[in-house]
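Possible regression after last week's pipeline update?

I re-ran a chain I had predicted before the update to compare outputs. Posting the input and the new output here so someone can diff against the archived version. Not blocking, just want to make sure nothing changed silently.
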Amino acid sequence: MMTFFRILLFSKVMLLTPEPIDIFGVAEFKLKQPLTAITTGARIEINISSMIEPRQAGRSELERRIKSEFPVGSIEATLIGKDKQQVRLRYDANYAYSQNEVELTLAADGGVPINIEFEKLIIVSRIKLKSVLVSWRNYKH
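New output (post-update):
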């Protein structure tokens, strides 16, 4: 019940890249404000709608293209805390889509520790990500 109230009161999605960016290799983000997870299901989301438009494909075609163009493990991220704690997140073929958007999800094995302030994000991509937006979701319901 406590988790429900934390999500209700403190949940948020924070856009980390106000403008679309390209990522290939290593991209480091110094965060304007620290990121904190309120549940262990917190995650990084990469909006790839500029690369795969969901309206152009049915669900099975969308899934086929995502699996083909974004192989498992091709994108990883590291959150670095104020006390140099590190949490690794990885793309494992999890994604979300709506009529207008497609987002890849990067999650941590075992979850993101709560109540740690992360001040730096490093994303490593082995594939070219073009005109993507990067977001932080501090919860999973």
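Follow-up from reviewer: compared with the archived run. Confidence is low (pLDDT under 50) at residues 4-8. Marking as no regression found.
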